[in-house]
Automatic annotation (TrEMBL):
One of its GO terms (biological process) is protein ubiquitination. InterPro entries: ClpS_core, E3_ELL-like, E3_ligase_UBR-like_C, Ribosomal_bL12_C/ClpS-like, UBR-box_UBR2, UBR1-like, UBR1-like_WH, WH_DNA-bd_sf. Its EC number is 2.3.2.27. This is E3 ubiquitin-protein ligase. GO terms for cellular component: chromosome; cytoplasm; nucleus; ubiquitin ligase complex. It is an enzyme of class 2 (transferase). SUPFAM superfamilies: ClpS-like (SSF54736), Winged helix' DNA-binding domain (SSF46785). It catalyses: S-ubiquitinyl-[E2 ubiquitin-conjugating enzyme]-L-cysteine + [acceptor protein]-L-lysine = [E2 ubiquitin-conjugating enzyme]-L-cysteine + N(6)-ubiquitinyl-[acceptor protein]-L-lysine. A zinc finger (UBR-type) spans 99-170. Belongs to the E3 ubiquitin-protein ligase UBR1-like family. Its main location: nucleus. It comes from Sinocyclocheilus grahami. Coiled coil: none annotated.
């Protein structure tokens, strides 16, 4: 009760003080004060509790009115020394503003990034700057902001060209950058410093205050009341439903009130849920803690004194005020930066900014947002203090301990500093930022196995939570490495290599993590954890690539990095582990020392980042030619090729064995790992680097040794090393499963050999550029089928800037086909690029390979070209001659094709060597090798001899052309010159084509003769049938003769009756009537439609509709009294009639109606009665009017309402009782009334041509029920244009006793329960019907590639497609009849 009395007395007392208060006098008093902080604190202690937090329900209107007058105005008077409006205007007039735009983005506001000029994807422009810049004519990416970032217009480091828009173009006369404080007087600088120091310290103290019942010294109120708030705080653990349920129990509120509480807690981070004395609030706190602590950490609840809450509320207002004041002058901004970063009495890391960052995780969401905005408008906008702030930021921020999402943490500001190249270099060299980030990351991941590898298998919930948090550090490292240095200093080299060492330590903890062992006998009981390791790998993919790019930009760094990486790999491989004992392999007179290792029996890991980083650096040594120019600086003597290839080869063989079905009992976890190993998200730094390492090792080894090690690791050595491999193979593979496994393993091994010797479209392996690699990728994707732009983008790897390089080459290899009203634009491969197709392309999956082969065969058949033979040869190199003697073991299609492909590769490679060689001598003698027989003791025939034997084998018919081609090419290369070889190949191809043409001509001639024979037989049969049925045919001809009398009888001239166009006597054309037979859906009886036949009817469904509405504001009619068949004159609601189209007998329908208890009324009489019922109220009013006007007595029938009322009223008013006669007698009067019919058809609203305009409109939309909070999901009604706050609790309303969302409720007010909406931030069209039916539909906005972008994931500019929008409108007009299941 005391609290309530205080509430009533407070406003009157405050009004009295307000009338006597003078901000100018208060400021003058402060100017004379010897202890200004004490005076200001006393003022705040007196007035803040009287303005804020005076009761259970806050009054923001009073607060916003009184706080500026009583609290902020004295501060402005003191700062300016005169009227604030005058003083601040002078500051603004004398200010020389920075060229930086600095516009802070709101949630959902559109942002633009130029894909040609931006330094990285984080560099964005606001809409106004973008429209005034040169980048609107470039390729750009459009996204929606999550809030918090600012426009980079004017930042020369953010743009390669065009850093300024028209508005922020620098003035040449003001090009000299002066100290912003130079134009400000010393007295004002001192006053500003005093005010900013006091207010900022006050705000920091209150926002970081952790005592619930006390205030800092000097802020104790003169009168302390016993009023408290039970304050509920937000977290990222409990759901909306849990909070709502708990609040209903704790504070005895309704569900609607609990929803409101939960919404504000989620938005602002905290909310008072109870007001009263301490005991009253403590009771609610105990209930909340008890109900939410059963399974998880309880909700944070504090019982806080009202004066503490009041000062915290004003502290937020004070920070907002500081942000507004510094906009007037850069000098004020500079002073605030000085105050914020000034060291406190505690020494280092004791500034006010440090205090805020250290306590960031303890503050609630609303407080964080306010001071983050202040940092962005002050520290990050001043180039001098931005560097100092960046240094302090690196030392203080720690997101891992936070319990909120990163977007609410101060660490989210890292992108504003780490992505600036100059700041990143400075932080690396002076603060060792790279090493700090990596070591911090590793410090948080302490769970390791005995070998020191990361172990995620037995992670607790807390460790998993920490792992998710710590991944943000990888994002920070990505920002630091985003821009490669163009100039290196010795200090930068030193610090980068130190960071590289730390990065190698991280990769060493990943090398060999999550090893797997083949499960034999019994299926694995529980799927092991694998996602965490691959999540880490995907997060580091771009980091590894950027590390290599940094190394490639400086020769010294590249050499040192290569040495360090090789040393780290040697350390990982030091010593033999269990199962890796040395052995010697002997085969075909060659021997090699290796280790005994079986992938199917020992541990094997798919994670080998150290090996793969070394492979990337090895390729860079070749690409930059460092290996050729500085060989003496490289540790070439330390290279051990068998060591280099060992683990990548194991990983590739693991994939082969999984494909062979040998690891089925290991469950889906391994299958998923193999999938991501080859997936475009991971393959660049996994599969591709393993292949490069295999190529590097093979190039440094004896080819025979390499092949023998490969056979050993594939576990095929025991088969192929036998003197009689045929018998050994048959004996070893008596089991069909083992036979199939070995066949698959041989296929996989041959495929690996083809990839190792043939895939050289990688910079550093072959003499190609990145654009050549991208072009080849696109060609092989389009060989599968024509693809949309988005499909191609998904199939290509992205770099750190989210670019694939596709736009540079796509037009040279494909043709674009624009879409129609439906579908997408497609790229189709140019015919001349089909020659680049390689069936064994290393990025093809088995499914892709099969689809591509079938597609190319189909194209060849359509073009009339040979699909076998020469077309299987591609221009690729070969180093090896092997495996053909063993194809006689099992002449399987794929095996033979792979071996022939290898031989063909060798022949083409030799041809290229001969053509490019200056003389006749060449060291590439592949033809000689395949002509040489095998060595003793096997004495196997040569490869050519075997091919000659196989060319006539009937089971190899499909390969006959290929074999013959190889044999012909071999003979020509031995006997003729290169020119003759080329001529013969042309002749051979022409010969094959001529042969095919002759064969096709012969078949066409046979088909023609066959058709002529069949037609002759049919003609003979027809003549025979007509001869036997002459009378029937004669009668038919007479009926069809136009000169017969029957036609004349029905001609218009011979008919005496009037022409009638409708009804049973309507005029018909000559000839017999066309019979129409239908089937009754109820009785299934067939019935002919005749005028004298049984009546047939259709069932119709009549419902309410607003498609033609001219007044959407009218509330829905009462369904008990409203007749849906007739409309109100203003057409607020109309009717829609639809039919399923099924025909019924009238009597069948009547029987069903009687059976179902429905009243049967003739439709005509129903219409008659309804029209009379609508007119009766007007007739009664007219009768009353003329009764009192003329005094004519009312007839006795008026006193009793009955069946004769209509006739009595008409007689009384001298009107005919017949409706038609009533209309025709008054036609002149009624024509003007009916002049407005038919009404103009309604249309859905017009949309802007550029989708960004729609996003900008939605970004300014605020939730109507959440105090100005930005709507998370603004949704536009396409019928009336209203913007709604959808998908949120805040705007739920009750409809017919049920809570529904804003869109559903709007449909009943705007569209009679049917609505069509556009979800702006998702770019989706939403159809709704009633409370439970709805579906999504493709939006009418398309990018330049003819595709929609639902979810705005790709970021391509979107423009309105009028044809598709017309289709949406057509759907809206027929919305009530839509089949929702199939839309």
């Amino acid at each position: 009760m005391a609290a309530a009395e205080t509430d009533r007395e407070a406003p009157s007392a405050l009004c009295s003080e307000f009338l006597q208060f003078s901000a100018k006098d208060t400021a003058a008093k402060w100017l004379q004060a010897s202890n200004l902080p004490k005076e200001v604190y006393q003022h705040l202690a007196c007035y803040v509790p009287k303005i804020y937090c005076l009761g259970p329900n806050l009054n923001p209107q009073n607060e916003d009115l009184l706080a500026p007058l009583l609290l902020q105005s004295p501060l402005e008077w003191y700062l300016c020394g005169e009227e604030p409006s005058v003083g601040l205007a002078k500051l603004e007039q004398n200010n020389q503003p920075s060229q930086l735009c600095g516009h802070v983005f709101k949630v959902g506001e559109p942002t633009y990034s130029c894909r040609e000029c931006a330094a990285d994807p984080t560099c964005v422009l606001c809409m106004q700057c973008f429209l005034g810049s040169v980048h609107k004519e470039h390729r750009y990416r459009m996204t929606t902001s999550g809030g918090g970032g600012f426009c980079d217009c004017g930042d020369t480091e953010a743009w390669k060209k065009g850093p300024y828009c028209q508005k922020h173009e620098p003035n040449i006369s003001d090009s000299s950058q002066k100290d912003p404080l130079a134009n400000m007087s010393e007295e004002m600088i001192a006053r500003t410093h005093n005010v900013f120091s006091i207010i900022l310290k006050y705000a920091v103290d209150m926002l970081t205050w952790d005592k619930e019942d006390e205030l800092p010294e000097g802020l104790e109120p003169p009168l302390r009341g016993d009023t408290y708030y039970c304050m509920l705080f937000n977290d990222e653990v409990h759901t909306y439903e849990q909070v709502i349920y708990t609040l209903q129990k704790a504070v005895s509120c309704t569900q609607k009130e609990a929803v409101s509480f939960a919404t504000i807690v989620d938005r602002d981070g905290r909310k008072s849920v109870r007001f009263g004395d301490f005991q009253f609030c403590e009771q609610a706190k105990s209930v909340i803690v008890r109900n939410t602590s059963r399974q998880t950490k309880p909700l944070r609840v504090e019982v806080m004194h009202s004066s503490v809450v009041a000062h915290q509320c004003f502290a937020l207002k004070a920070l907002t005020w500081l942000g507004q004041i510094i906009r007037c002058s850069d000098a004020l901004r500079r002073i605030l930066c000085q105050v914020g970063l000034q060291r406190g009495p505690e020494g280092e890391n004791s500034s006010l900014v440090d205090t805020l960052m250290l306590c960031d995780s303890k503050m609630w969401k609303g407080a964080r947002n306010v001071y983050h905005q202040l940092f962005m408008s002050s520290l990050l906008m001043d180039s001098k203090y931005k560097k100092l702030f960046a240094i302090q930021f690196c030392l203080q921020s720690d997101y891992v301990k936070d319990d909120h999402d990163r977007e609410f943490s101060v660490t989210d500001l890292s992108v504003q500093m780490f992505a600036v190249p100059s700041l990143a270099r400075m932080l690396i060299t002076e603060e060792n930022l790279m090493t700090t980030i990596i070591r911090t990351f590793m410090d948080h991941l302490r769970h390791r196995d005995l070998q020191g590898h990361f172990q995620f298998e037995r992670y607790t919930a807390q460790q998993a939570f920490k792992f998710r948090r710590v991944q943000s550090l990888i994002g920070d490292l990505k920002y630091v490495l985003m821009s490669r240095p163009t100039e290196w200093t010795d200090q930068l080299r030193e610090k980068y290599l130190e960071g590289f060492d730390a990065f190698l330590e991280l990769l060493k903890c990943m090398q060999g993590m999550d090893p797997v062992v083949r499960q034999v006998g019994q299926h694995i009981e529980m799927e092991p954890e694998w996602e965490a390791a691959f999540t880490l790998q995907m997060k580091l993919t771009h980091i590894i690539s950027m590390m290599q790019e940094w190394c490639a930009s400086d020769e010294r760094v590249l050499i040192e990095a290569y040495k360090k990486c090789l040393s780290a790999l040697t350390h990982c491989h030091s010593g033999f582990t269990d199962g890796e004992q040395p052995i010697t392999l002997c085969m075909c007179g060659h021997s090699v020392d290796t280790i005994r290792y079986c992938v199917s029996q020992e541990k094997v890991s798919i994670h080998l980042p150290v090996s793969r980083l070394l492979a990337g650096l090895h390729a860079l040594l070749s690409k930059t030619e460092v290996a050729y120019r500085f060989p003496e600086q490289l540790p070439l003597s330390e290279l051990s090729p068998p060591m280099l290839i060992e683990h990548p080869l194991r990983c590739l063989i693991l994939c082969a064995q999984v494909h062979a079905g040998m690891w089925r009992r290991n469950g889906f976890s391994l299958v998923n790992q193999i999938y991501y190993y080859h997936n475009v998200k991971c393959r660049v730094e996994m599969f591709d680097q393993d292949l490069i390492m295999l190529q590097a090792g093979a190039s440094m080894m004896d080819p025979n040794h390499f092949l023998m090690i490969m056979l050993s690791r594939f576990e095929l050595y025991h088969i192929f090393s036998s003197a009689d491999c045929r018998k050994r193979y048959s004996r070893e593979n008596a089991n069909k499963d083992v036979l199939q496994q070995n066949n698959t393993l041989i296929e996989e091994m041959l495929h690996l050999v083809i990839m190792t010797v043939g895939e050289r479209y990688t910079a550093g392996v072959g003499q190609v550029e990145s654009s050549d690699e991208t072009r080849r990728e696109i060609v092989h994707q389009l060989c599968i089928r024509p693809m949309a732009h988005s499909e191609l983008v998904k199939a290509l790897p992205e770099n750190e800037n989210k670019e694939t390089g596709m736009e540079r080459v796509i037009d040279s290899v494909s043709l674009f086909k624009k879409p129609g009203v439906t579908g997408r634009g497609l790229y189709k491969l140019r015919p001349e690029c089909a020659k680049m197709f390689n069936l064994y392309f290393y990025h093809y999956s088995r499914a892709d390979q099969s689809k591509a082969e079938e597609a190319q065969r189909r194209i060849k058949r359509q073009n009339g070209e040979d699909s076998d033979g020469v077309k299987r040869l591609w221009r690729q190199p070969v180093i090896l001659d092997m495996f053909l003697p063993h194809t006689q073991v099992r002449a399987q299609y794929e095996l033979v094709l792979q071996v022939l492909h290898l031989i063909g590769m060798g022949l083409v490679e030799e041809q290229q060597h001969l053509i490019s060689s200056a003389d006749d001598d060449t060291n590439f003698n592949f033809t000689l090798k395949i002509s040489r027989p095998g060595e003793a003791p096997a004495n196997t025939p040569s490869i050519l001899a075997l091919l000659e034997t196989l060319q006539n084998a009937p089971h190899l018919e499909v390969h006959k052309d290929m074999i013959r081609w190889i044999l012909k090419v071999k003979l020509i290369q031995i006997s003729l010159q290169i020119a003759l070889l080329s001529h013969w190949m042309c002749v051979y191809v022409k010969m094959v084509r001529d042969k095919d043409k002759a064969e096709r001509k012969r078949k066409a001639e046979m088909a023609r003769l066959r058709r002529e024979k069949i037609m002759a037989q049919m003609s003979e049969m027809q003549r025979h049938f007509i001869n036997e049925n002459k009378e029937l045919f004669q009668q038919s001809l007479e009926e069809l003769d136009p000169s017969t009398s029957s036609t004349l009888e029905h001609s218009p001239s011979s008919c005496d009756s009037t022409l009638v166009c409708v009804g049973p006597r309507r005029w018909r054309a000559g000839g017999s009537e066309r019979r129409q037979m239908v089937t009754c859906i109820l009785c299934q009886e067939e019935q002919e439609i005749r005028t004298d036949g049984k009546a047939m009817v259709l069932a119709a469904f009549v419902q309410r509709s607003t498609v033609m509405s001219k007044n959407r504001k009218r509330p829905p009619h009462n369904p008990d009294k409203y007749d849906p068949l007739f409309m109100h004159p203003d057409l607020s609601f109309g009717t829609h009639t639809g039919s399923c189209g099924h025909i019924m007998h009238s009597h069948c329908w009547q029987s069903c109606m009687r059976f179902s208890g429905l009243h049967e009324v003739s439709s005509g009489w129903h219409l008659w009665h309804c029209v009379k019922a609508g007119i009766l109220p007007y007739l009664r009013a007219a009768a009353l009017f003329f009764h009192y006007l003329n005094g004519a007595p009312a007839p006795p029938e008026f006193h009793t309402l009955g069946a004769g009322e209509w006739e009595a009223l008409c007689g009384y008013l001298c009107l005919p009782s017949n409706l038609l006669q009533l209309y025709y007698n008054n036609q002149e009067l009624m024509e003007p009334l009916l002049h407005g019919f038919p009404r103009e058809s309604n249309h859905i609203i017009e949309l802007p041509g550029d989708y960004s305009a729609l996003i900008n409109q939605a970004s300014s939309f605020t939730c109507p029920k959440s105090g100005g909070d930005k709507s998370r999901a603004p949704t536009l009604c396409l019928v009336c244009g209203a913007m709604l706050c959808s998908q949120s609790y805040c705007c739920q309303t009750e409809l017919e006793g049920e809570d529904v969302g804003a869109c559903t409720a709007h449909t009943f007010a705007c569209g009679a329960g049917v609505g069509i909406f556009l979800r702006v931030r998702e770019s989706q069209v939403l159809f709704l019907a009633g409370k439970s039916k709805g579906c999504f539909y493709a939006p009418p906005y398309l990018d330049d590639y003819g595709e929609t972008d639902q979810g705005l994931r790709r970021g391509n500019p979107l423009h309105l497609c009028q044809e598709r929008y017309r289709k949406v409108q057509k759907l809206w007009r027929t919305l009530v009849g839509i089949d929702w299941q199939h839309l």
